[in-house]
Every structure is written in structure tokens, then in C-alpha cells.
Design a protein that fits this description.
The chain is an alpha/beta fold and 350 residues long. The protein has 11 helices and 12 strands. It is 43% helix and 17% strand. β1 (51-55), α2 (66-81) and β2 (84-88) form a beta-alpha-beta unit. It is globular and about 55 Å long.
């Protein structure tokens, strides 16, 4: 009996120690994480439960252009606010509807469509899912649950046209477009008008490759233009334009001086100052950030389509232009910029 009593007493003491240990031992669960909606004691940014998705066009998320700019914006917001972000890459037109629907089914708070060509698919999915929110870059979708954001590409392209027209040594300048669609026609129209304004004797060669995801086609188009005497090429062709840069780099290595004017992003950061004269930057990152933040803040409400131009700093030249563009040329571009903003110059869209 005494042995049984001692054994029971020892078991009770041991059990008490285990309980005490459980109460004092730090838990590994949730280590390094802050509960949603709480800043904890670490001074971290308040975390958000918002879920924002993005559907690319065929150029893909690593197009070195506007798809990439949009994704970089969402990644920054994820880092700053702890939101959930995800992209789905489209390899063809048939992917747009299922990709958009995947975010709807995942109950995402906002789904971005990046690119003019996604508009029809977004219209269809938005009409079928009126309680879901969408936003699109580079086209207008008429639906109460879609925020449309476009840019005055012709205004910014006018300025790089001025730069090209004052920089060319051969009086032959190239324009390589992706698909022959209104948004790309705006690039072409503004560019040609800018060249004409400062150098009416210059010839602008034009080639539409028909694709935004074919660098080999961009390289071939650039080779033809350089062979024809062009010394500057402005491309508006998404990932196809990577081939334009590759062709320029090959020629520079051979001792030939040719230039490329980048698009959407400051492409000198990707392809280098040896071939990038300047870029026509579209603030896609800023637009995606602006409306995505509204979702995070709980204030997002789709409204009338928005067009961002020179007066909004939605398009323009990057600071790095100073590396290769002479000061007097940049000054001339600034003069034309002010005239456009004031309405003294009306830049054609086609």
C-alpha cells in the first residue's frame, strides 16, 4: 500500500512539472509572424487580409515591360502590407477567361488584367460576377465593377520622337510595334509627330511584328531597319522588344553605334546605357499601386475610366535620359512637354 502511495505521489509531482513546463515553454507556432490586423510589439506594418491577383497578357510577367511593372507594384505592396498576391501567366487568348475566373473562385478582392487584349475576357467575367472587382491596364471595360486605366502614350511618345529626331545621324529612325492595335498605334502616331516637329527631313521606318512575346521577331525587325540605315529604333512591343535590344547589343559589340528607345519601364536598367538612348515610361507601377492601396484601405470603388498623361506624370522620360541625351535636347523635349500640357500642341492618337 505504501509503495502504491509513493508511486502515485511521484506521478502527481511529475505531471505537475510537465504542466508547469508547458506553461512556460515558448511556442514555435506562428514564430516570426504577426497576426492579421495586429502590429504586435515589433513595430511592423499592419498586415492586411486583402487578396489581389493579376492576369498577364501573352508577354508574361518577366517581359521587362508593363507586365513586370504591374507585378513589381503588387510585390512591393505585399512586402509593405502583408497582402496575398498571385499572378497567372497567359500563353494565349484562350487563357484569359479561365485565369480571371480562377481569381473570382479564389475570392480575391481585386483582379488586375494587364493589357489591351484582355478587355473582352474581362468584360465577360465581370458581367458574370458582379460582386467581384476588377481593374485593367491599357483598355476600357464598360462595367460597374471594373476600374479602367489607360495612358496618353502618344504624348510621351512625342517626346522620345523629339529626342530621336534631334539625335539621329542618318535621318532614318525605326519604330517596331507589337500587335497592330489602338494602344500601339498611339505610340507610333505620337513618335512620328515628335520626330517631324524637330526634323521634318527624317524618315521613320515602321514594322509591326504581330506579337508581344516573340524576341526573335523583334531581333529580325531591328536587323532589317539597322541594315536600311536606321541608327535609332523605338520599340513598343513588350517582350518582342527584347530582341530589338539584343540586335543593338550585337551591333555595338561590332563597333557600330546604334540606339534603342525603350518602352513602359526605364529599360536602361535592364539592357544598359550602351544601347538605351532613353525610354518612354508609363507609370503602370504607380497606377497599380494607387488602386490596389484602395483595396487595402477598404475604399476601392470602380469609377469612370482614367487616362494618365504628361500632366499627371503618367508618361514621360526617365531621369537616366541624362546619361546619353544631350542637355540641349532634353531642354527642347521639356519645352514641347509644356506646350502639350498647356494645350498648345494637340498630339494625334493615330
Amino acid at each position: 500500500m505504501k509503495k502504491m502511495f509513493k508511486l502515485s505521489l511521484m506521478m502527481m509531482i511529475a505531471f505537475s512539472l510537465v504542466l508547469a513546463g508547458c506553461g512556460n515553454k515558448p511556442s514555435n507556432e506562428g514564430q516570426g509572424q504577426t497576426p492579421s490586423g495586429s502590429t504586435g510589439n515589433t513595430g511592423e506594418t499592419k498586415k492586411s487580409e486583402a487578396k489581389i491577383g493579376m492576369v498577364t497578357d501573352v508577354g508574361g510577367v518577366n517581359d521587362k515591360s508593363f507586365n513586370q511593372s504591374a507585378w513589381e507594384a503588387l510585390e512591393k505592396l505585399k512586402k509593405e502590407n502583408g497582402i496575398t498576391t498571385k499572378y497567372l501567366q497567359s500563353k494565349g487568348d484562350s487563357d484569359y477567361v479561365p485565369n480571371l475566373n480562377q481569381f473570382v473562385q479564389g475570392k480575391y478582392d481585386l483582379t488586375w488584367g494587364i493589357g489591351f487584349v484582355i478587355a473582352d475576357a474581362m468584360k465577360k467575367v465581370a458581367d458574370q460576377n458582379p460582386k467581384s472587382n476588377f481593374a485593367i491596364i491599357d483598355n476600357v471595360v464598360e462595367a460597374p465593377n471594373v476600374q479602367s486605366v489607360t495612358f496618353a502614350e502618344h504624348e510621351g511618345s512625342y517626346l522620345v520622337g523629339v529626342v530621336a529626331g534631334l539625335t539621329t545621324k542618318t535621318n532614318k529612325i525605326g519604330f517596331v510595334g507589337g500587335m497592330d492595335i489602338p494602344v500601339i498605334k498611339r505610340f507610333e502616331a505620337g513618335f512620328k509627330e515628335g520626330v517631324k516637329a524637330v526634323n521634318p527631313g527624317a524618315k521613320v521606318l515602321v514594322n509591326y511584328t504581330g506579337a508581344f512575346d516573340k524576341p526573335d521577331l523583334g531581333k529580325a525587325a531591328a536587323a532589317t531597319m539597322y541594315n536600311d540605315g536606321a541608327d535609332i529604333i523605338f520599340h513598343s512591343s513588350g517582350a518582342t522588344g527584347n530582341g530589338v535590344f539584343n540586335e543593338a547589343k550585337d551591333r555595338v559589340k561590332q563597333g557600330k553605334k546604334v540606339w534603342v528607345i525603350g518602352v513602359d519601364k526605364d529599360q536602361s536598367l535592364e539592357f544598359g546605357d550602351d544601347v538605351t538612348l532613353t525610354s518612354m515610361v508609363k507609370d503602370v507601377e504607380g497606377a497599380v499601386t494607387r488602386y490596389s492601396k484602395q483595396v487595402i484601405d477598404g475604399t476601392f470603388k470602380p469609377g469612370a475610366p482614367v487616362t494618365l498623361g504628361l500632366k499627371d506624370n503618367g508618361v514621360g522620360l526617365p531621369e537616366t535620359s541624362k546619361k546619353n541625351v544631350p542637355e540641349d535636347v532634353l531642354k527642347k523635349a521639356d519645352e514641347y512637354k509644356e506646350k502639350i500640357i498647356k494645350g498648345e500642341i494637340k498630339v494625334p492618337e493615330k
